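Hey, quick one: can you model this chain's 3D structure?
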Amino acid sequence: MMDIRRFDIYRKVPKDLTQPTTTGAVISICCVIFIAFMIFNDLLAYIFIDVRSELFVDDPGREGKIDVSVNVSFPALPCELIRIVDVGVDIQDENGRHEVGFVGKTDKIPLDGGVGCRFESTFEINKVPGNFHLSTHSAQSQPDSPDMRHVIHSIMFGDKIMNNLKGSFDPLSKKETMGSQPLATHEYILKIVPTVFESIGGTVTTAYQYTFGHREYVAYHHSGRIIPAVWFKYELQPITVKMTETRQSFYMFLTSICAVVGGTFTVAGIIDSFVFTMSEMWKKHELGKLT
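Sure thing. Here's the predicted structure for all 291 residues.
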């Protein structure tokens, strides 16, 4: 009967025929520590989710809507003052939309006993260049000196994105103009970049990152000073950012572990063999046996 042991390619050497060395022990300890460190890092890479980004040119088109959420405080502008001052949103774009005094899905929260006002609103805009602005234009009776100094808490476009995702989704957050002239008009120029986020579970979220520029000025007309406002002028860019959550496959994790263990032991064996050979040659040289 054929002995299956003849197929063993890992032949064992009797222990009494091996020779332990101090150098081999040091190399072995370093080898084990290095393998443990590499396996730990590979395990972290396997467990944690990574977000990969890619850019591609994509015309956002002229169809569809973008959700906008606005949260701005006016510390010196009352929400209501005997129904004289009324802050609203005016929306205008290149599709011909011109909506004055938008109040749908809008909340006005009095601040400091009615001295100021926190303005919160959500609305939709078309995917074309346009603007919206906060002003008193829709008020039945205009105040003499509307103070448009403000603190921006949030200006966001598209779906709500998770907080730990890196990006410029709300760069205007905490922007304040309390050191400006009370009667100045503020203008923000927004360059909006569509961003598609795909979670590890396959859920797709469409948000929008943006950059901004800001300027302020006191506007005048031949008839006198123009009523100040806070303008947000936006334009969509033809570049889309796609962010995808990925996790290393178990196959790649297992392959990496095998490569680390096998490669480390192989290199360590070569180093140990070289050091041992050089050591033996030196000993022979000292004894005068090296020819």
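One thing worth noting: Residues 250-287 form the longest helix (38 residues).
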